[in-house]
Write a structure and sequence with these properties.
The complex is a heterodimer of chains A (597) and B (592). Chain A is an alpha/beta fold and 597 residues long. In chain A, helix 2 (21-34) crosses helix 3, helix 10 packs across helix 13 (323-335) and helix 17 packs antiparallel against helix 21. The chains are: A alpha/beta (597), B alpha/beta (592).
Chain lengths: 597, 592
């Protein structure tokens, strides 16, 4: 067996994979072979590093060199310069967005400095398609410990004491959920992994499945042992082909190693896992809808109780946990409840993975201890707002969450603080908005999503959300009245009060939180008929400032509808009745003469 | 039994564990409004998708408003059913529902009988905000031989789905599409005609709005009545006479046989006959077939299929033709009373009055929507002239009577015409579950044993349980009888027959829960099973009051055999009164 002195870790997550990281791996291997270095240097295709903004990523170990936006043709340079001559390739190094200086060790990158990676511990570090690498990182040790040293009750107690809460959105205590499933007697029980990640912009579950599938399998087996189940099912959306592939590989390998199947580790415990594919309906993330979908029925929720712990898949007691919840379980078992509960805030323990997106410099996946402030996430890890624009808000919890404003920047992020601030944790999507974003349009944007994804079973969600969406559209078009704001609020509250499942009960959150935090902007739309962010077309008027206009005719020539009139070298005028507000004239004008009123 | 104590609207109540808030409130006389919830007591039919969200209530300690229909009572619960918050939520949700509903109440066939309209009135909705820009979901209209689907009016209560899938196990209807465009339709949004639909009409019977209605055949009937060259003959089914009164303000179970005959005569029908006559004829044919098959079976004839299944219900025929085509030689070959009537009317009776069958129009009044499809079947026509031209439902007849300015309440009782109007009590009870087999037993017993029945009432065959069985002593021969109403129950018995496990000699099946009294063409029961029970009881009363109560004693039936048919199951009887069955999936779905 070779002893490698250097490892080249190439990101094989979906993002980097689509930017040809496979070709980078091939080229690196070819180069190493050509130079006769294959015994000394190993190239590994790993899961996601999280820093998707700058992908594809190549990380060189042991010196933590972090190369970004690598192209397949850079392989030669990396091998010749870094591997052979020991000189870092400066042009490929990550550059600090503020100092513009290249950062030679990834430990010094702002993006990683404040992170604490428990769930993502193996993502970007091991080859997810090689079970040995997982085992080398203490993989399946927790399962071994549980099966040989602990009773199911002991195991549940550890999870309960750790204070872990479900990462799927609602934050229900994991240990308690397991305990309920254990208490219900039945000849058959099921462990279900909810991998129906659906929040737009959130991809932590996908990254875990792609980067560290065994951690989920191991956790499911631990859960099966704890609640008394011998069957596990992973409900994963069919749009995640890479995650599905890696899960299939992982399940096959685990079975070959006797870590899944009958008589695991010779203890007499039987547990196996199968996959169920979802068609990508957001509502199927709701556990009763998910179970119906797995049963081949229409993916729509039913009233709880009965909870799945009582009557779930095939009417048997079923424990449904989210991917991120499960991925932390083996570590909690090995390091103990005390260790885990020392991380985080009083009522929210451990770490949380967030997907940063929107108008932020470092778009990607991060994992931080609960209690980290929004400011740290946005300005330190996230590297601040893009293009030097002003921070306006951050939408947490995806379309079911709320939008937090500048005044919330210093609250420590945890389940309860987010709810108190009018939002939710959700699955951990964070979309950062800047001064150019119109809050009325954003609220409508999120409702576009919920309207599309409602299953249609209950009237408030099926029709109410549509009506909310339409009314927001009216406001964006300048047809709203101040009374409409009251109507928006009333409809939102009624939908929250009466909708059947979590989807409908949370769908008005963006509207309510944005009306609460940015009321003046809503008022501007309905009273002044203005969009302060300059986003709503119907509320804009393009005007030419005669002081700046030199009569160059460039605007008139570019106007697609002939709305601009004026003689050469004379001040031009825009006819608002013809203007379609496409903005071409403003873009074309070299004299800053065209402005929006 | 464990009980739960709670408070609803400041009133304390103790209820059995598992009682919902809605049910508990009802016990206190608090009628929480709902649009989707439906529960037919004692019939095992319940629909509670918790989808309309009208029945929401406020419960102390709960942050949202739970639906009372599907929230179980818990100890110490404090429930309020009409707080400002609840009333506002109910009204707002109702406004949502109305905003996505056509506003053509004035011309809707359900107007005046529509749960949605009644609810809008009850909640005092006087305007629907945002009408100017609110989108309305629209769908393709679908007309099948019996049922019209106008899904623009669907409010997704899912009652039809419960009836079609859970109760009837037909599986023609289920929710399709998502969100605002969600609706209920056959798979792939195919037309009902090309689905497994049996036209039992139970979806129509429970639809709270005008989304599911019957095909209206009144205009065709009017045209025939106005045509001087046509002799128009009408027949009316047993279950109609105990339900029609409801449409004219009478209480369920009112018997209006005499007024019905009078009204039909007033409408201008040339001959007012009774399907009950044909029901007696059915017993003669089916009873004889039963005894013949049974006799051969007891002698060890392997070709004699036992049990024999009744075949007078067209929804049931459609069902086994679709789901059990391998068993199509098991049911009796006897036509339904409607079709026997048509065949005799257009042969024996037409000859008698010297009218060509092409100049005779036979109209049937039926509690049923499947009858509309049945009379259109190819095998029930001669040279493209159907034995029964039009079948109209009890509801359609009521509308027709109202249009013709006839005040049913003030009509004097009249009799049916002869010769096809005379019937026995045995025929009357065809309209309820267990009735056909009881009628058959009365005749078969006397023919088989050669003895007079000591007790005409076979009470052991009566009742409302979905599947029933009884053993009748035929003078030493124990005859095992099975009864099922509702196609889901029928499926259970059929599965046993298919598996060779059935212990029955004869099985009666009615597609609709309760039998014809609960037919898809009857006045709407609005979720009250007491209505169905009252209608069934009325049929037994009518039977009891008849001078003749056994089909073979009907003098006009005896005469019909003497003058025309010869004897039961004769070649002529076979030609006119018996039929054959198809593999419906093969014939309709696959060909399509």
């Amino acid at each position: 067996m070779s002893k490698y002195s250097m490892h080249l870790l190439v990101c094989g997550g979906t993002g980097c994979h689509s930017s040809e990281s496979d070709a980078i791996v091939c080229n690196l291997r070819d180069e190493l072979e050509a130079k006769g270095l294959t015994d000394n240097v190993q190239v590994i295709l790993t899961g996601c590093f999280g820093f998707c903004e700058k992908g594809p990523i190549v990380k060189v170990m042991p010196d933590n060199t972090f190369y970004v936006q690598v192209k397949p043709e850079d392989a030669q340079t990396i091998v010749e310069e870094h591997v052979i001559k020991g000189r870092k390739v400066t042009r490929l190094l990550y550059k600090d967005p503020v100092s513009k200086e290249p950062v030679s060790d990834s430990k010094h990158m702002g993006f990683f400095k404040k992170q604490l990676r428990i769930v993502l511990r193996n993502c970007g570090f091991i080859n997810p398609e090689n079970i040995d690498e997982y085992i080398a990182r203490d993989g399946y040790m927790a399962l071994g410990k549980v099966l040989s040293e602990m009773t199911p009750e002991d195991t549940i107690k550890v999870i309960k004491d750790s204070g872990q809460r479900g990462r799927g959105g609602a934050g229900f205590p994991t240990g308690l959920k397991w305990e309920l499933a254990r208490k219900n007697q039945s000849d058959e029980k099921y462990v279900v992994c909810n991998a129906d990640e659906g929040d737009p912009g959130a991809f932590m579950d996908r990254s875990v499945l792609e980067g560290d599938p065994h951690s989920v399998l191991e956790a499911m087996a631990i859960c099966g042992y704890s609640i008394g189940a011998s069957n596990g099912l992973i409900y994963v959306r069919a749009e995640y082909p890479l995650a599905i592939h890696r899960l299939q590989v992982a399940i096959k390998q685990a079975r070959e190693y006797g870590l899944l199947g009958n008589n695991i580790m010779g203890t007499g415990f039987n547990f196996d896992i199968n996959l169920r594919f979802g068609a990508g309906a957001f509502v199927c993330g709701e556990e009763t809808a998910l179970i119906h979908s797995m049963e081949g029925l229409r993916g729509e929720p039913t009233v709880k109780p009965p909870f799945p712990a009582e009557s779930g898949f095939r009417s048997k007691p079923t424990n449904v946990n989210n991917v991120e919840t499960l991925a932390a379980i083996p570590v909690i078992i090995l390091k103990g409840a005390k260790w885990y509960s020392s991380i985080g805030t009083e009522k929210s323990k451990g770490t949380k993975v967030f997907a940063l997106a929107g108008k932020i410099n470092n778009v990607g996946l991060i994992e931080v201890p609960m209690g980290t402030t929004l400011r740290e996430v946005v300005f330190e890890i996230g590297g601040g707002i893009r293009n030097g624009k002003k921070f306006k808000g951050v939408q947490t919890g995806g379309p079911s969450g709320g939008c937090l404003s500048e005044k919330h920047l210093d609250i420590p992020i945890d389940y309860d603080n987010l709810i108190a601030a009018g939002s939710i944790m959700g699955s951990g999507g964070m979309i950062i908005l800047d001064e150019d974003d119109c809050m009325v349009s954003m609220a409508k944007f999120y409702l576009d999503f919920t309207v599309e994804e409602s299953c249609g079973k209950c009237a408030p969600c099926r029709i109410g959300n549509k009506r909310l969406n339409e009314l927001l559209g009216q406001i964006c078009e300048g047809k709203g009245t101040i009374e409409d704001l009251d109507r928006l609020k009333n409809m939102s509250n009624v939908i929250k009060d009466t909708a059947l499942c979590g989807l409908g009960q949370t769908s008005p959150n963006p509207v309510l939180s944005m009306m609460e935090n940015y009321r003046e902007e809503f008022v501007a739309h309905v009273v002044d008929k203005k969009c302060p962010a300059g986003h709503c077309r119907s509320l804009m008027e393009y005007v030419i400032n005669p002081d700046n206009c030199v009569g160059c005719t460039a605007c008139a020539r570019v106007c697609p509808v002939g709305a601009i009139k004026g003689e050469r070298k004379e001040t031009h005028k825009i006819d608002p009745s013809i203007c379609i507000k496409c903005g071409s004239c403003k873009e074309k004008c070299k004299f800053d003469a065209i402005f929006i009123r | 039994m464990e009980t739960i104590k709670l408070t609803i609207d400041n009133k304390e109540i103790e209820v059995p564990k598992g009682t919902t808030i809605y049910q508990a409130a009802k016990m206190l006389g608090i009628d929480i409004p709902t649009l989707c919830y439906m529960h037919l007591d004692d019939m095992n039919i319940e629909n509670k998708p918790a989808g309309c969200r009208i029945c929401v209530v406020e419960v102390n300690g709960r942050k949202n408003l739970p639906p009372s229909c599907s929230t179980d009572c818990q100890n110490g619960m404090v429930v309020k059913t009409h707080t400002t918050r609840v009333l506002n939520a109910r009204r707002t949700v109702m406004e949502f529902i109305l905003s996505d509903h056509p506003k053509d109440c004035l011309v809707c066939s359900k107007s005046g009988n529509c749960d949605l309209q009644a609810m809008a009135h009850r909640l005092g909705i006087r305007e629907i905000p945002g009408q100017e820009y609110a989108a309305v979901s629209t769908y393709r209209k679908d007309t099948s031989p019996s049922i019209i689907r106008d899904l623009d009016k669907c409010i997704l209560c899912r009652r039809c789905e419960t009836m079609c899938n859970t109760v009837q196990t037909v599986g023609a209807l289920s929710a399709v599409n998502r969100g605002f465009m969600a609706t209920v339709a056959p798979a792939f949004e195919e037309n009902l005609e090309y689905s497994p639909c049996t036209y039992c009409g139970q979806c129509v019977a429970v639809c709270p709005t005008g989304a599911l209605t019957e095909v209206n055949h009144i205009p065709q009937v009017l045209r025939a009545l106005a045509d001087p060259t046509k002799t128009v003959v009408v027949q009316t089914a047993p279950a109609v006479r105990v339900a029609l009164g409801e449409e004219f303000g009478m209480k369920p179970g009112s018997i209006v046989t005499g007024k019905l005959a009078a009204a039909l005569r007033a409408l201008g029908f040339d001959y007012v006959f009774d399907t009950d006559f044909a029901a007696d004829l059915t017993i003669m044919e089916e009873g004889t077939e039963l005894l013949d098959r049974l006799g051969r079976y007891l002698k060890g004839d392997k070709s004699a299929r036992i049990p024999i299944l009744t075949s007078c219900c067209p929804g049931w025929v459609n069902f086994f033709e679709y789901y059990f085509p391998d068993l199509k030689d098991v049911p009796s070959t006897a036509k339904s009373p409607q079709q026997m009537f048509g065949a005799i009317a257009k042969s024996y009776f037409a000859d008698k009055i010297g009218v060509n069958r092409k100049d005779m129009v036979v109209v049937s009044i039926m509690p049923c929507l499947a009858k509309k499809y049945e009379c259109q079947r190819d095998e029930f026509s001669v040279d493209n002239n159907p034995d029964v031209d039009y079948s109209i439902s009890t509801r359609e007849l009521a509308a027709f009577i109202k249009q013709a300015n006839i005040d049913v309440n003030s009509l004097d009782d009249e009799d049916f015409d002869n010769p096809l109007g005379e019937s026995t009590g045995a025929a009357v009870i065809f309209g309820t579950t267990g009735g056909v087999i009881e009628a058959a037993c009365r005749t078969a017993y006397e023919i088989y044993t050669g003895k007079k029945l000591a007790k005409i009432d076979f009470t052991e065959l009566r009742g409302m349980e979905g599947v029933r069985s009884a053993t009748i002593d035929f003078n030493g021969l124990p005859l095992n009888i099975g009864i099922a109403h509702g196609l889901g129950n029928a499926r259970k018995l059929l599965d046993d027959v298919r598996a060779g496990k059935s212990q029955f000699h004869a099985i009666e099946v009615m597609a609709c829960p309760g039998g014809c009294v609960g037919g898809g063409g009857q006045p709407l029961h609005h979720g009250d099973s007491e209505v169905l029970k009252a209608r069934a009881a009325a049929l037994y009363t009518e039977d009891k009051n008849k001078p003749l109560r056994k089909s073979h004693e009907n003098p006009f039936i005896i005469k019909l055999y003497e003058e025309f048919l010869g004897k039961p199951n004769s070649e002529k009887a076979h030609h006119l009164l018996h039929t054959h069955y198809f593999d419906r999936k093969e014939k309709i779905i696959i060909k399509h």
